[in-house]
C-alpha cells in the first residue's frame, strides 16, 4: 500500500471515528493534504471558513500567503504536506479548546507517522504548544527545536500566516524565518 493510500484510509477512518464536538457545526472534516513523500510537514491550528467549505487545509488568505512564501524558497504546495491540529472549524474562528485538540490528536499522529517527515513545522502557537506546551511562539519562532518524540525529533516553530496577514511587523519576521527552511532541511539531510 502506498503512503497516499494509507493516508486516504486514515482520513476515511477518522472522518467517521473522530469524536470532536466541532464536528456537529462544521460543514465537513478537513484532513491533511499534500505530498505523502514530503520531507516537511506543516501543522496549523484548525480550519477556517474557506477550509471548512472546500475540505482542504490552508486554501484561504493564510494559504495564499503560505504559497507565496513557498515560492520565495523555490518550493511549491505540491512539495509539502500540510495539516492542522484540529480537523474541524471552530465557530467564528475561535481558538480550539483543549478537548477539541485532544479528540483529533490520534488522527494527526497517524498522519505524521505515515508521512515520516524529516522536519515538522509548527504554524502558530497552537500547534507549537500541542507538542511543546511550555514554549512561547514569540521566543522560539525561527528556531530549531530538538526533542525525541513519538512523531519526530526536529521541529521548527513559525508564526501562523494568518497572524502575519494582520500584523505587518510579524509578516516580515515570518518571511525571514520561512527563508531558513531550505538551510534547515539541508542541515538535516547532511547529518542523517
TrEMBL record:
Enzymatic reactions: Hydrolyzes single-stranded DNA or mismatched double-stranded DNA and polynucleotides, releasing free uracil
Keyword set includes Metal-binding: yes
Domain named Uracil-DNA glycosylase-like: residues: 31-179
CDD domains in the record: UDG-F4_TTUDGA_SPO1dp_like (cd10030)
Name the UniProt record assigns to this protein: Type-4 uracil-DNA glycosylase
Any single GO BP term: DNA repair
InterPro entries: UDG_Type-4/5, Ura-DNA_glyco_family4, Uracil-DNA_glycosylase-like, Uracil-DNA_glycosylase-like_sf
An example Gene Ontology molecular-function term: metal ion binding
PANTHER family, alphabetized: TYPE-4 URACIL-DNA GLYCOSYLASE, TYPE-5 URACIL-DNA GLYCOSYLASE
